[in-house]
TrEMBL record:
<dbReference type="InterPro" id="IPR047618">
    <property type="entry name" value="QOR-like"/>
</dbReference>
<feature type="domain" description="Enoyl reductase (ER)">
    <location>
        <begin position="11"/>
        <end position="321"/>
    </location>
</feature>
<dbReference type="InterPro" id="IPR011032">
    <property type="entry name" value="GroES-like_sf"/>
</dbReference>
<keyword id="KW-0521">NADP</keyword>
<dbReference type="Pfam" id="PF08240">
    <property type="entry name" value="ADH_N"/>
</dbReference>
<dbReference type="GO" id="GO:0008270">
    <property type="term" value="F:zinc ion binding"/>
</dbReference>
<dbReference type="Pfam" id="PF00107">
    <property type="entry name" value="ADH_zinc_N"/>
</dbReference>
<dbReference type="InterPro" id="IPR013154">
    <property type="entry name" value="ADH-like_N"/>
</dbReference>
<keyword id="KW-0560">Oxidoreductase</keyword>
<dbReference type="InterPro" id="IPR013149">
    <property type="entry name" value="ADH-like_C"/>
</dbReference>
<dbReference type="GO" id="GO:0003960">
    <property type="term" value="F:quinone reductase (NADPH) activity"/>
</dbReference>
<dbReference type="GO" id="GO:0070402">
    <property type="term" value="F:NADPH binding"/>
</dbReference>
<dbReference type="InterPro" id="IPR020843">
    <property type="entry name" value="ER"/>
</dbReference>
<dbReference type="GO" id="GO:0005829">
    <property type="term" value="C:cytosol"/>
</dbReference>
<dbReference type="InterPro" id="IPR036291">
    <property type="entry name" value="NAD(P)-bd_dom_sf"/>
</dbReference>
<dbReference type="InterPro" id="IPR002364">
    <property type="entry name" value="Quin_OxRdtase/zeta-crystal_CS"/>
</dbReference>
<dbReference type="GO" id="GO:0035925">
    <property type="term" value="F:mRNA 3'-UTR AU-rich region binding"/>
</dbReference>
Length: 323
């Protein structure tokens, strides 16, 4: 029997159960994939905790890469043996996963399985943030929180490629070095200083055009205070906890700024949009203008340790589970 990581009751990392599951078959419009690697993301922690509720029991994980082993009816464009990657298929922490064909993208030659699994969910997130949520223009100054994390490192690179000046925040000296290596022009150690006044100093009091904030509760107030008039706060995650309800009058007081809470699903809602974003990411990987840092590879059986390390901020870059 194939094995997978299952959540029977929500809670901490200890609820993750590595267990035998029934062998699966693809239905109409689906692919059965032998998983080569599964990506670990904060949204997996939210599902495990019940912050984003799902009916229990459920298989964890949304993202992975692998090789198609069976094709369901009504599927076109994919065949047994094809290498694919995906970012929106629950149950990806598994030796075998059933993936909707509409959520899968072909993996080009020259992109290995680990890179494909590490790129898609966080890469698509970074892409929609800089290309759609606030389309970065040459000469913009933007702020990227957790700039040495999986999304953060990609955001820094993509924003720089569009001509931005990038200010990053990090919590350790080692993470500062990684953010600078990715191209950050300025890096603020928010464990040592209050980042909002430092952003104002670095921008001669003007503020930034956009803040890309995946941290949430601990950074939200400072993010608002870092924006220039009519700037955009893109709150795309909450690794430090959920942001309390916000009085809209605060947006007026901050300078007629914009607050948005975007999601990946809304930005890959059509096949055309998914292919556009994934295609640009794979092309950037191929030409060397984008690199993916894999910060840790864990056996699938050690999903609990991967979650503990991620939530304990002991990691940089992307974490993978390998069956």
């Amino acid at each position: 029997m194939p094995k997978a990581v299952v959540v029977r009751a929500t809670g901490g990392p200890d609820v993750l159960e590595f267990t035998d599951v029934e062998a699966k078959s693809p239905g109409a419009g689906e692919l059965l994939v032998d998983v080569a690697a599964a990506g670990v993301n904060f949204i997996d922690c939210y599902h495990r905790e019940g912050r984003y509720p799902l009916p229990t029991p459920f298989g964890l994980g949304l993202e992975g890469s692998g090789r198609v082993s069976a094709v369901g009816s009504d599927v076109t464009g994919f065949a047994v043996g094809d290498r694919v990657a995906w970012s929106q298929s629950l149950g990806s922490y598994a030796e075998q996963a059933v993936v909707r064909a509409g959520d899968a993208v072909p993996v080009p030659d020259g992109v290995d399985d680990d890179t494909a699994a590490a790129l898609l969910l966080q890469g698509l997130t970074a892409h929609y943030l800089v290309a759609s949520t606030y389309p970065v223009q040459k000469g913009d100054t933007v702020l990227v929180h957790a700039a040495a994390g999986g999304v953060g490192l990609l955001l820094v690179q993509l924003a720089k490629a569009r001509g931005a000046r990038v200010i990053g925040t990090v919590s350790t000296e080692a993470k500062e070095a990684l953010a600078r290596e990715a191209g950050a022009d300025e890096v603020i150690r928010y464990d040592l200083t209050d980042f909002a006044p430092e952003v104002r100093r670095l921008t001669d009091g003007v503020g930034v055009a956009a803040v890309y904030d995946g941290v949430g509760a601990t950074t939200f107030d400072g993010s608002l205070a870092s924006l220039k008039p009519r700037g955009v706060l893109a709150l795309f995650g909450a690794s430090s906890g959920a942001v309390p309800p916000v009085d809209p009058q605060r947006l007026n007081q901050a300078g007629s700024v914009y607050l948005t809470r975007p999601s990946l699903g809304a930005h890959v809602a059509t096949r055309e949009e998914l292919e556009w974003r994934a295609g640009e990411l794979f092309a950037a990987i191929a030409d060397g203008s984008l690199t993916v840092r894999i910060g840790g590879r864990y056996p699938l059986a050690e999903a609990r340790r991967a979650h503990e390390d991620l939530e304990g901020r002991r990691t940089t870059g992307k974490l993978l589970l390998v069956p």
